[in-house]
Each structure stands twice: as C-alpha cells, then as structure tokens.
Amino acid sequence: MSKKGKVLMAMSGGIDSTVAALMLHKEGYEVVGITMKTWDYATSVGVNNKKETGCCNLDSFNDARMAAVENGFPHFILDIREEFGDFVIENFVEEYLAGRTPNPCVMCNTHIKWRALLKRADAMGCDYIATGHYAQVHQHSNGRYFIRKGKDESKDQSYALWGLQQDLLSRTLLPLGTFHKTEIRQMAHDFGYPELAKKNESYEICFVPDNDYRGFLKRRVEGLEEKVAGGNFVDPSGKILGTHKGYPFYTVGQRKGLDIALGSPAFVTAILPETNTVVLGTETDLNKTEMKVNGINWMKYENIEDGMEATTKIRYKDSGTNGQLFHDGTQIRVQFHVDVKGVAPGQSAVFYEGEDVIGGGIIQRPMTD
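^ thats the sequence. predicted structure below, dont judge the formating
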C-alpha cells in the first residue's frame, strides 16, 4: 500500500484525466483507473448522423486503458448506463417539458458520477476518488470542505461542481486545479503522450454528441413534435405575434432560429408550458434584478447569514454578478446590484466568495421587476 494512499481515478481517455492520473501515479499514489460508460451512442443520435465525439466511445476507452497499462496501474470499465439514464437523461427531458433549461453535467456530477465513483472506491478499498476537473478542493477552518476556482480561469469548472456534498468533497482529489491548460499540454508531452495534446476536446452534452437537443427530445419522446406544434408566440402584454414549433424547442435568451419577422430583434423572455406559449421581447426585457433558487447545497459554510454579499454565476461562462443572498423559506432569493440578462429557470446559480464556492442551487424563476 502506498503511503500516499489508494485513489480511484476517473479516466475518460482525454488529455486532462490522463495527465491527472499520471500526475498522481508519479506522486506516489496507488492509482486505479476507471472509465464510466454512461450512454449508448447508437440510441442518442439520428441514424444518418455518423459523428461520434466525447468520452463514451470505444477509442476513448482504449486510450484510457492503454495509458494505465503502460504505466503499470489497473484499469476498469464501469457500466453506469442504467443509473445515468434513469436520472440524468430523464431529468433532461422532464426539464425541457416543464419549460426549463437543464444543466445535465451538473446533475451528473451531483447525483451520479461522484456517487458511483465513491461506491466503487469503497468496494476497492480506495482512500480517494479523483477527476480531471479544473477546480480545487479546500478545507475551511470550520472543518467544511469546499470547491475553489481552478487557477486557469479560462478552464475553471467550479460552476459544475456546486452540488457535491461534504462526504464526497472530503474524499476528492483534483490534481489539475492549480495548473493552466498549457502546462497540462506540456505534461502530456513530458509523459510521452504528445498525441493527447492534439486530441480534440468535446464541449457537448455527452448523450447529445451531435449537439442537437431538439432532435434528441423528438427521438426520446414519441409524438412530441405533433403534441406541441402550433403554440403561440406572444409579446409581454399577451398579444399574439405568430406561431412556433413547440415550447420545448426554445430557451430563455434565444434570438436565432425563431423563424418570425417582427421588424426588430426579438428574444425569448419566458416559456409557459401550461399553454404552450413562448413570450418574445426586447433584449432589455431579459434584464432581471432578482431571482429565486432552490435545491441549495451549501459548501463553505453550513448556512449563511441573511443578506450575505456574494458573486452569483447563472451560467457556465458567466463572469458573475455581485448581489445579496436572502433566505426565503427553503429557497434563496438573490438580489443583484445591477441588471442581469437571461436568467433561465432550470440552470444552476452558483454563489462565490472571492474564488471560493459558497454553494449553489437551481434557478426557479426570474421575479417580475
């Protein structure tokens, strides 16, 4: 047994997780590689679409296994298709049918990936689990574990990890958190894997590798297109502007692909599934100063004081907006100091104190200003 401990390393076959595994191996950890099969490619894209990208294809599995074998540590493939599909994919579909915009990567990290890893880590006698995310795990003086932003701001993935609970964080290693992507590419060369530095990275949803969520919904829900076709576009006052293709196929903030000419730019400002209505407005109509968030997971503190100042991110690439957090029953009400554009129900809201994640939750609805 290594003095550093035994770690179960999630390996996708890409540069980040491979380099992370080799870093831990070099540092003296007893590494066990594991690649998770989360979905069936053949059932996720149209029959005429031959594009296969992302982490769940045979080439990726082989790349992960080869790196492990060449460096003398074991590697396993873990089939979690049933666990993944029952929760992540069904949640993805249900959220769109409820008129919200889901974030499946957050749901997977929070409810599936880390739990699946920890369960297998315990079965294998591993002290830790590890991934190739660009973020850091720290422990506060109060004893609680929390996520801190990755050093490379352009690659920081702290936003997607807000849902991890204390038992998961206390066992998690994130080797890449204090490095820039350029350094990781150089490490791939130094470890003898220059081809990894050239490997394309996927930024798509893993079970929608063609990046066509509308097509996925149509294939997943029989007769959906017919059931929701012919709903109305309306303006903020309720005036009918035209018809649309079905409310699940639109997202708040969308401008392109509306197929309606109004003489000036129009944006989706609200989705009303109960009446199959999509509200269109101006870019200014997207501005909100408040929102409600539920499903809260606190990290850095067990709870917060009413009115706490924080920076809130409402999407992955959002730079964040300063405001105050207020308790509102089981929800948190976020009062922004300035207007925020495109608050989308279903997306994650993540609260930061400087570089540290205080906690996060799911956006419920933008409040009327």
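Confidence is low (pLDDT under 50) at residues 46-54.
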